[in-house]
Design a protein that fits this description.
alpha/beta, Dna Topoisomerase Vi A Subunit, Chain: A, domain 2, 4 strands
């Protein structure tokens, strides 16, 4: 996929994410800060609420954990926890961001997008 197409898809995904009214669950403050830098708000961090995450939500949520082994395991646990509480854990944004960015951690997203922009400028 061309850099311009990847960037366009990432920007579209992030634009949609910024409009979401559901909580976006990330692992920590660096992930939260990276998403805020990209205009995404309504974020809750696992380090802040821990295992009580389902208790803090009143509706379905978006899971946006890292893409390493720990992040994948955490995403699965969150899905199970939320589903067990009658809530849906949306993993679609997570899959799309991984697909178009190639990052391993959410906190890398702003710099990855800038790297793609640089690739486009240099062509």
């Amino acid at each position: 996929m061309l850099a311009k197409e990847r960037l366009g898809r990432l920007e579209r995904v992030l634009g949609q994410l910024a409009l979401e009214d559901r909580k976006i669950i990330v692992e920590g403050k660096h992930d939260r800060d990276a998403l805020r830098e990209l205009g995404v708000t309504n974020i809750v961090t696992i380090e802040r609420v821990g295992t009580r995450i389902a208790e803090t939500l009143d509706k379905d949520a978006i899971v946006l954990t890292d893409f390493d082994r720990k992040g994948r395991q955490l995403a699965e646990r969150l899905r199970e926890t939320l589903n067990g509480s009658g809530l849906n854990a949306d993993m679609d944004y997570r899959r799309e961001i991984k697909r178009y960015s190639g990052i391993t951690a959410i906190e890398e997203l702003p710099s990855r997008m800038e790297q793609i922009r640089k690739e486009i400028r240099e062509r």
